[in-house]
Amino acid sequence: MKRIAILGAGSWGTALAFVLTRSRQPHEISLWVHDPELAEFLRRERENQTYLPGLKLPAQVDVTNNIAAAMTGAQIVVGAIPAAYARKVYTLARQHWHGEMILVSATKGLEPISHARMSEVVHDVLGDAAAARVAILSGPSFALETARGEPTAVVVAGRPVLELTRVAGRHYADPAGEVQAEFAGPGFRLYTNNDVLGVELAGAMKNVIAIAAGVCSGLGLGANSLAALITRGLAEMTRLTTRLGGKPETMSGLAGLGDLVLTCNGALSRNRHIGIELGKGSELKEILSQMKMVAEGVGTTAALLDLATAANVELPITEQVNAILHEGKPPGDAIRDVMERPSKRE
Question: Which of 2, 88, 206, 285 does the annotation list as catalytic?
Answer without folding.
Answer: 206
